[in-house]
């Protein structure tokens, strides 16, 4: 299991720097650069693939007062990077697919396993948007027509001990790509790191196919613009 120092030094090795970091608090271009780009690179690498270690399922919190074109307004999970889909729990369906109550169950902020999901049901249409909370502050929400909606999503994971080796490798190439210009000034090196990042994502998806890992078709804007 890698820690942040190991990830930083692996990232620096991707762009061929001779320096390494011993402490991310040190006053060096390498440490400052890594601290600047790390969370962005981590989140983009998490978002790019439906990683099994970062997969979460949660009943959404109903906020009420939906817009006229949707029946429900839910809070967007604060730790969610990307919604992979909304589902209707299998245990809530009758033989005819109608919803039935689940006595004694708290539906908000609970997680359940795949065996409780009706993955054969039609996809639930939804929309993500920015709305306002009761204080007039911006609030990210999900609109849909599904009562007691269950979200399947990629969670923002910051604990590096949970990162599998394939993710660490992909992440180091993403960090290398974002460090290449400020530390070396080389766009060629940056492009090479991006190519390796894409390759590592493909390899990771193939290696973890049995866990249902899938590449997403949309890459981050900063990559598409290159």
Quick recap:
The chain is α+β, with helices and mostly antiparallel strands. It is 34% helix and 16% strand.
Describe the structure.
- The chain has 226 residues and is α+β, with helices and mostly antiparallel strands.
- The chain folds into two domains: 4-51 and 164-224, no CATH class; 55-155, no CATH class.
- It contains five helices and six strands, in the order H-H-E-E-E-E-E-E-H-H-H.
- The strands form two sheets. It has a three-stranded antiparallel β-sheet, covered by helices on one side. It has a three-stranded antiparallel β-sheet with strand order 2-5-4, with no helix packed on it.
- A hairpin with a 5-residue loop joins strand 4 and strand 5 (138-144).
- The longest helix is centred in the last third of the chain and has 21 residues, at 187-207.
- The model is unreliable at 93-116 (pLDDT under 50).
Descriptors:
three-stranded antiparallel β-sheet, 5 helices, elongated, 2 domains, 226 residues, 16% strand, alpha+beta
